[in-house]
Specification:
Blueprint (H helix, E strand, L loop, with lengths): L4 E6 L8 H9 L8 H17 L2 E7 L4 E8 L13 E9 L8 H15 L4 E7 L3 H9 L3 E6 L10 E7 L2
Parallel strand pairs: 4-5
Antiparallel strand pairs: 1-2, 2-3, 3-4, 5-7, 6-7
Length: about 170
């Protein structure tokens, strides 16, 4: 039996079911949902994303149970300056552990890409942890190319961040 999924944009008030999943994305295994310091930091981060104009898209199964989410920033710059309004950036994409390995991350990514194309953007940028070959492989499998690596962003023991992009034009 094949399950149907739907994706919809969600407002800040609808984000709570995805809170711990975003904590995992942002802080990895270090995230502790019972630690008030972690919770308040993550709440501020989510609030700042919404304030910047970021959109959150939630993936639900046919029973409206949360499966995953993605956050996308498409900034609108001055229309008379040619180099503005050319890119979009995917900040987060995550699938709950029990749904991983079923192609749902790719489904969500394609949905985001279609939004970017409709907005007539040149490319979509993604950054991820350099020490996560699985995430990097996921993006490369979906047509993204490595464009930069920033080593030790969070200190000397940090592997850094890699930036990937996919060009649409």
């Amino acid at each position: 039996m094949r399950m149907n999924y739907n994706i919809k944009e969600i407002e800040k008030l609808d984000f709570e079911p995805f809170f711990d999943l975003m904590g995992e994305v942002e802080l990895g295994s270090e995230f502790n949902s019972t630690n008030e310091n972690h919770r308040s930091w993550l709440k501020r981060k989510i609030e700042s994303h919404y304030q910047r104009g970021m959109s959150f898209y939630a993936l639900y199964d046919e029973n409206e149970k949360p499966v995953g989410f993605a956050s996308l920033l498409i900034e609108k710059g001055p229309s008379d300056i040619s180099y503005f309004n050319q890119k979009a950036e995917l900040y987060d994409i995550a699938i709950f552990p029990e749904h991983r390995g079923k192609g749902l991350g790719g489904k969500l990514l394609k949905y985001i890409e279609n939004i970017v194309k409709k907005e007539n953007r040149y490319c979509l940028y993604i950054s991820t942890y350099e020490g996560d070959p699985k995430a990097i492989g996921f993006y490369e499998t979906n047509g993204y190319s490595l464009v930069a690596t920033l080593p030790d962003v969070h200190g000397p023991s940090d592997k850094g961040i890699v930036y990937l992009r996919k060009v649409f034009k």
